[in-house]
Specification:
The protein is of the alpha/beta class. About 45% of the residues lie in helices and about 15% in strands. The chain is globular. The relative contact order is 0.15.
C-alpha cells in the first residue's frame, strides 16, 4: 500500500489487503509505530472496505434516572450518595416527564445508564422500560450496561439470563457497552474494584447475544493501563464476537480527569492527546475485524476531533445525546448535545456521507445536504 513508511507495517498492510486477521504482536506494532499517516491509511482502508464513505449517527436522548451509586469507581465523577449535594433519584413518572419535556420529533433512541442504586427493586427497571415504550411509541430503548445488569441480578437474586429475558419481554431493544472499563485485573482492582468482573461483563454480553439482544462494547483508556492491556481488552472482545456476533460497535472512551478520585491520586489534569485518541481508534478498527463499527464518541473526543477520526477508521460518531451528563460531570468540555443537522454537517464537511440510523444500525435517512 502506498504511503506507508514504516517497514514493520508492510506485512500488516499485506494482511489488511488480503482481509487476514492481525495477531496480538502485530497489534502492538500498530500502537508503537511512529508512522501515524501509514496507520491512518491502513485504518481508513478497512473502514472504506466495510462501509465506504457512510458515517452513522442516531437521534437519541441520554437518560440517567439516578446518580446515587454504591460502587465507588475511582474514575467516576457522576456518582453521589444519599443526601449528598447534586444527587437525584427519579421515580418512573419523573423519568417519563423528563424525557417528554425534551422530546424532539423523529427521536429514535432512548439511551439509559445510571448509578447502581442500592434500594430500587428490579421491578422498578421493568416498569421503567414499559413506561418509556408506552409513552413514546416507536422509540427504541437501549438501556443499562452489563455492570447494571450484574447489579440487577444481585438485588433480584436472579441469574443473568432471567434478568435479561425479563427486560427483553418488557421492551428492551439493545444494550449500551459501558462498564467494561479495562478487563485487566491489575487495573480493575484499582479503578473499579466493586464493579462487575471482566469475566462477568463478558458473560452478560454473551447471554444477551444468545437471547437476541444486540449490544455494544466500550474501553476506558488514558489512565493507568498499558498498551498491552488495551490490546488485551480488544482481544477478549474479538474472541467473544467470533462466538456470538452480537456486538454492533466498539467505543473507546477517553478518561476525563476532572472531579474524580483517580485523577486526584495520579495528579492527572491533562486529557488524552488527539493523536493518542486517533491512534487508539485506528488500532481498534484494524484489530477488531469482526465488529462492524468503531465509534468516535464526540462527547469525549470533541466534535472537531471526531470529524478528523473519520479518516482513522471511525464510521459512527454517536448521536444527538440531548443533555448527556456522565462524561460532562467528569469535565468533558464538549456540548451536552448536538442537533441532527450539526452532526450531518460535521460528516459532510469531512467528505463522508451522513447516515441517520436507529439503535440497531438500521438506516433511517441518508443526508445529502444540510439546509443553511
Amino acid at each position: 500500500m502506498k504511503g506507508i513508511r514504516d517497514p514493520k507495517l508492510w506485512p500488516i498492510a499485506e494482511k489488511v489487503e488480503a482481509g487476514e486477521r492481525l495477531t496480538f504482536a502485530e497489534g502492538l506494532i500498530l500502537y508503537q509505530t511512529r508512522d501515524l499517516t501509514g496507520l491512518m491509511r491502513l485504518a481508513n482502508r478497512v473502514r472504506e472496505k466495510k462501509h465506504g464513505h457512510k458515517t452513522y449517527f442516531v437521534h437519541s436522548i441520554r437518560v440517567s434516572q439516578t446518580n446515587i451509586c454504591y460502587v465507588g469507581c475511582t474514575f467516576c465523577a457522576f456518582q453521589r450518595r444519599f443526601g449528598e449535594e447534586g444527587a437525584w433519584d427519579w421515580d418512573v413518572e419523573e423519568v417519563v416527564a423528563w424525557v417528554r419535556a425534551r422530546y424532539q420529533p423523529g427521536l429514535t433512541e432512548i439511551h439509559v445508564t445510571a448509578g447502581h442504586h442500592p434500594k430500587r427493586p428490579f421491578q422498578y427497571y421493568l416498569d421503567l422500560v414499559r413506561a418509556l415504550k408506552a409513552s413514546f411509541p416507536g422509540v427504541q430503548v437501549k438501556a443499562w450496561t452489563a455492570a447494571e445488569i450484574h447489579h440487577f441480578s444481585k438485588i433480584a437474586r436472579l441469574p443473568y439470563k432471567e434478568v435479561l429475558q425479563a427486560l427483553k419481554e418488557a421492551g428492551l431493544d439493545a444494550m449500551p457497552g459501558g462498564g467494561a472499563e479495562i478487563f485487566a485485573e491489575r487495573v480493575r482492582k484499582e479503578i473499579a474494584r466493586a464493579k462487575v468482573s471482566a469475566a462477568g461483563w463478558l458473560l452478560i454480553h454473551r447471554i444477551a447475544h444468545e437471547l437476541g439482544i444486540p449490544t455494544n462494547a466500550t474501553m476506558l483508556y488514558g489512565h493507568i493501563e498499558t498498551l498491552e492491556e488495551r490490546l488485551d481488552h480488544m482481544d477478549r472482545l474479538r474472541q467473544l464476537q467470533d462466538e456470538t456476533g452480537g456486538f454492533m460497535s466498539f467505543i473507546p472512551l477517553a478518561f476525563q480527569p476532572d472531579g474524580n478520585l483517580l485523577a486526584k491520586k495520579l495528579g492527572k489534569r491533562e486529557f488524552t492527546t488527539g493523536l493518542d485518541d486517533l491512534r487508539n481508534l485506528a488500532v481498534a478498527r484494524l484489530y477488531l475485524d469482526n465488529i462492524p463499527h468503531i465509534k468516535g464518541y464526540w462527547a469525549t473526543l470533541t466534535p472537531e476531533l471526531a470529524q478528523v477520526s473519520l479518516d482513522w477508521g471511525v464510521t459512527d460518531i454517536d448521536g444527538t445525546l440531548i443533555e448527556e451528563r456522565i462524561v460532562h460531570m467528569a469535565g468533558s468540555p464538549t456540548p451536552e448535545g448536538l442537533s441532527k443537522a450539526a452532526l450531518a454537517r460535521i460528516i459532510l464537511a469531512a467528505g463522508r456521507i451522513p447516515v441517520e440510523r436507529d439503535a440497531l444500525y438500521r438506516e433511517v435517512r441518508v443526508w445529502d445536504r444540510v439546509e443553511a
